[in-house]
Amino acid sequence: MTARLCLPDIWQKMTEAIGKEEEDIITLSDWIQLCESSRKLAREPAWQKAYVEYMFKLLDESGDHLVDQAEYVQVLGYFGVNRKDSSHCFDQFAFNHQGQLIHAIDKKKFHVLWKQFFHSEDPASPGNWLLGKKYKTQE
């Protein structure tokens, strides 16, 4: 299934943001442009607001308004991320203000990590791990 069919609200907001029709394809170049342009905005664009809400609900399988490691590992497994890698990723961002590992993250923490994922220029930012293992880009 395509993102257009599975996530119609997000798809509509994304195509609108890049000036395409909903029937059009969003290319990798479009996606990169969309992410780069959102970094320059003072406010989170509509497509990101919809996307972050969707992702939190997806990861919060139990519906308890928390994403714990078991849920995170399970859901990333649907996307082909193995248990070892997804557990490692969770440990890179699931910690409190004292730097201690925590069992689960709430929606507020998820939003902070989401913003880091899309906006941080710091390669050590914990949010870089939110959607799976980070890879070095080739310069």
TrEMBL record:
It comes from Caenorhabditis briggsae. The keyword Thylakoid does not apply. GO terms for molecular function: calcium ion binding. PROSITE patterns: EF_HAND_1, EF_HAND_2. Keywords: Calcium. This is EF-hand domain-containing protein. SUPFAM superfamilies: EF-hand (SSF47473). The lineage of its organism: Eukaryota, Metazoa, Ecdysozoa, Nematoda, Chromadorea. Gene3D superfamilies: EF-hand.
